[in-house]
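>> received
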Amino acid sequence: MKSIGILMGVPVLAAGMLGMAGCASVFIDVTQSVRVDAVTPSGQSIEGAACVAFNDRGMGAFQSGGAQLVRRSASSLHVTCTHPGQPPALGIATSRGNAGLAGNLVIGGLVGAAVDHSRGTAYTYPEWIRVEFGKALLFDRHLEKAGQPVVGYAAGSPPPPDPSNSATSLGCMQQVGGLRC
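>> returned
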């Protein structure tokens, strides 16, 4: 009788494991809110600039100064904002793996990671970016600080140092005569 109970438990366990496949797909929505602000070269904020954001999953038009729902993807999010009298503001927000992807690699395995990758739920963009008219900037979620826009940097230049990382802090650089610790 015990062997029948054990055998009946195997399909239940297998169904439970399959249900966990794509863990991020269960807990993370396929869309994400991204706030886009647009500023002039002098730093003046321009609310209401006409913006378009797109990736391989879709495109949306909106106005700067607010948040826009975008479809998650492994691909970068391209943002263009225009305003009369200003050259275009261009931004590329890098997509990075999120906690759902990490959880799948540990718990859900390759099947779960593949499901979340294909749906885009394994990835997240920076939550807040500030594009500047006349510039093309890159935005990396790894530089995100709570309650602040991600600092953009020009293509071809290194990302700005992370002040919370002592290895790249100004104090560390001064202690070693300008060399990185």
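>> The chain has one domain: 2-160.
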